[in-house]
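Re: Re: ligand-bound prediction request (bumping)

Still looking for help on this. To restate: I need the protein modeled with iron/sulfur cluster bound, output as structure tokens. Inputs repeated here so nobody has to scroll up.
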Amino acid sequence: MINDSNRLIYVMRPDGELNISHYFGALQELRELQYQYQSILFIADVQQLTTNPIAKIDYQERIENIVRDCILCGIDPSQTIICIESQIAELAEIHQLISAITPLGWLERVQNYKEVIDEIDHTELSTFGLLGLPLLYSAAVLGFNAMQVLEDNEYIAYIELSREIARRFNHLYGRESGFEEKAYQSINKLGEKKSDLYLKLLTKFQQDGDEEAEEQAKFLLEDAHNLAFGDKNRLIAFLENKSRVYLNEPKLLPLETKVVGTDGEYMNNTLDNIITLHETKESLNGKIRLMPSDPARVRLTDPGNPKLCPVWQLHKLYTSEQKQNQLKQSCTSATIGCSDCKQILEQNILNLQHTLHDKYGEICNDNISIKKIIADNCESASKIVCDTLESLKEAVCFTY
Ligand code: SF4
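Reply:
Sorry for the wait, this slipped through. Here it is.
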């Protein structure tokens, strides 16, 4: 059974249609990881609104489509909690609490505020929300108390900020008053047998330095599924003779695959260069036929260099190794034309699309199921974040 101390989060911004860069860049990996970690697929609509508050977007329709496509990519909603930022009210409270201890300089350092505004190209977007965007991200990662964040390296600064905030919060509030008394109350919640065992292991570790006993005690706590997150962390701190840890310091689980778009740049919804998971033969042909190839290959008789060809980057994702070797040979010896090479790619893209639709597509056409999946998953997400919020409120003495 996967325990909640092994939690992973992937933050997805709903900036348009789900496309193959999401699939190869993250979802394919999450599909495997969801069986090792308690996984959260977090759709960050508030973060998206913050970067573009002016656009009129039907978020409900967009997000339902994204959820549908995530399932089509093999994300199993009974295994991964697929949830929406704006539907988890507790996150707003966590955002408030951590904003109280986050120095302004940390936010200014994470992103160059002016650069972001220039990039977005809306001068009227000099908003408080934009400056606080990294904090929204941190609220999500810390709110779920994730140990791992599946993310591009370019977001490493956001994760570092989350780690710093967690460290600062733990430092400021970790010395809770009446810690020992509260630790014994938490021990009682383990039930009679487990409490006795925990206390024996605690004594063995603290008096004799028995590290195996420490490991066993931690395992016992991890396995105590009825114990709230706050109690668990308090008892780990009690075992290690430390002050209490309220927030985990998350680590980056880097995503390495970058997918090239139909214009040769990296695929991005804002660049209108995407391939979706619902292409028809015609729509796909329209996109791939116009794709740039090796610019030095002007005539059919010119040998090509796959390393300089964006089409080849897609072949590496879609085409079998054996076929890639044949194509590489044909390209470099000018025995295949780019148009034939592109047709092979088109067919391979359609083949994968069909495979996904056959394997995972059944639920995707059922609107009621998608709505229910979203509602149920958001409820589960709220429960997790609520646990964290309770523990943070306790730390700052908001125990009314
Ligand atoms: Fe690119 Fe294929 Fe043309 Fe070679 S044959 S340049 S790999 S499109």
